[in-house]
Amino acid sequence: MAKEGIRRPEKALSPRFVETVTAPGKHFDGNGLFLRVQANGSKQWVQRIVIRGKRCELGLGSPPAISLATARKLALENRGKAMLGGDPLQDRREARAGLTFAEAKEKYLAAKLDEFRNDKHRKQWEATLETYAIPTLGPKRVSEISVQDVLKVLEPIWQGKTETASRLRGRIESVLSWATVAGHRVGDNPARWKGNLSELLPKVAKVAKSENQPALALADVPRWWADLALREGMAARALEFLTLTAARSGEVRGMTWDELDFGVSDKTDATDETPVATLATSATWTVPASRMKNGREHRVALTPEAVAILKRLPRRSDSPFVFPAPMGGALSDMTISAVMRRMQETESKAGRPGYLDPRNKRPAVPHGLRSTFRQWAAERGYPRDMAEIALAHFIGSDVERAYQRSDMLERRRVMMAAWARFLSGEAGVETVLAFAGSTR
User: Which stretches make up the Tyr recombinase domain (predicted)?
Assistant: First the structure.
């Protein structure tokens, strides 16, 4: 007769069962592997195994970080090692002896490098841990990190930087999950949310909305734009182009010449004296899906002003980038941000308030310019969907997107031309109906 609390299913476990089971007890699979479910809902993979004649239990981590397939693979490897006279338990103890969280973070990133969408994503992932987690958790052995240690990292920023803190928690959990699977720690993951930190920290939705990047006030735009035109350097030109296209910094910094189609304007060899109006009638920048946040190709209608910037840039034979760094690589995000920061510092030194977000009074940043564009488009009466497409945002439901095949490129071209005029301080009234007939 089976002992109370032990359930032996007729068939091996399934991923669906692992995901949905709530009944406390031990749910067996094979090779001594079973899923232990606690009364509070937490789950842990455990393997019952005989090592050198002694019966032992090995913790293999917790789902969903450790899937059923991964747990089975680990259990099979442990069983094979034990059958050959090895001691997987001792190996795990030795591996855990000296690995710190900082070392685990490096090993995790090395193992997961190919899964990151791009280098910027990896750097953001790593920077969050370096800034907030490493000072507290870095020197600690992963085998010794507790829930209280994780709380020391999260609590100081959970209220003021909720979205950042939430991402940080997930990243700490991922590193510790890797450490468990790699044999550097055992037991439940102290950074797990459900049934763990969820009982100690308020829900993200209850604390704060997403942190909006400081945006430039519409009233300050012409003055800021004129100020930017006086700035020299590749980063300043990249910031100008970013503003004209309402693109993300990473999209502009990673732009290569082969993504550009100047259309009719290719016939023009521009100089500083070339009238802007003659430069472009159908110029387009196509950002490949691999460089887009939403994973979809995005076309940008380039205005004459944007083309004028591009035509005046030197093309380097040693770099594919349109806005290269001095050594030929892509500009860093901080390089463009530094332009706006220096503009603000100049204003402050002159005793002027500078370029502040009208709501939170913080200095505007490059990403906030997208919000400035969105506010301008709304106030000028441009269709919501068209403005959202210009920002490369998803619009509507999956069904609506399936039927909305047009990206309104030519209608957006008219809108972006009006935006360029607004940046230059031309206060003429844009007529929305002027482009109502075009649907391309």
Answer: 211-416
For tokens 């606690």, the residue is: 38
Cis peptide before 64 (omega within 30 of 0): yes
* 213 occurs within a structural domain: no
What is the mean pLDDT of the segment spanning 96-109? 84
Q: What is the pLDDT of residues 419-431, one digit of tens each?
A: 999 999 875 444 4
Task: Record the tokens describing residue 358, joined without a space.
Answer: 């009208």
Quick one: three-class SS letters along 33-68? Answer: EEEEECCCCCEEEEEEEEECCEEEEEECCCCCCCCH
Q: Tell me the pLDDT tens digit for each residue of 376-400.
A: 999 999 999 899 999 988 775 554 4
Q: State which of 68, 96, 124 marks the end of a domain.
A: 96
Q: Which residues contact 368 (CB under 8 A, 6 or more apart)?
A: 212, 213, 214, 215, 216, 357
243 occurs within a structural domain: yes
Question: Quick one: pLDDT band at residue 1, thresholds 50, 70, 90?
Answer: very low
Measured over all CA atoms, what is the biggest interatomic distance in the chain, rounded to whole angstroms?
A: 93
Task: Tell me, yes or no, whether 212 lies in a domain.
Answer: no
Those residues with Cβ within 8 angstroms of residue 389's Cβ, 6 or more apart along the chain or in another chain: 395, 407, 408, 412
- Phi, psi angle pair for 33, to nearest 5°: -80, 135
Q: Residue 152 has what DSSP assignment?
A: H
Average pLDDT over the chain, rounded to an integer: 84
Domain hosting residue 417, numbered range: 218-435
